[in-house]
Amino acid sequence: EVQLVESGGGLVQAGGSLRLSCTGSGFAFDDFAIGWFRQAPGKEREGVSCISAYDGSTYYAESVKGRFTISRDNAKNTVYLQMNSLKPEDTAVYHCVADPVSPLRSNWNHMSYDYWGQGTQVAVSS
What are the beta bridge partners of residue 80? Predict the structure, then answer.
């Protein structure tokens, strides 16, 4: 069974940090681009970040550039999202996503990712 399992969410004060983890199983994790999308009530789903399978290229939403860092450890089938300098507007459910198609700067946040995790809640208080 294909699974993407997120962890690491929680409640933090503005300016704090969290590290999210996404662990995949049941598919060729090494061959998939892995990303993070977030969904907050009353807002459209937003692509947060993505990391490619082959060359490690990374992509970020303008709203998180300079604050978030995505990385992957294929030996552990895990992708991380280090989130620093958190803001209340970062509050959302964060979903891990996976797709075998190599993302590009122009399309990573518009791709239809094959697999989606259940999500982990991030709440940032002011």
Answer: 21, 71
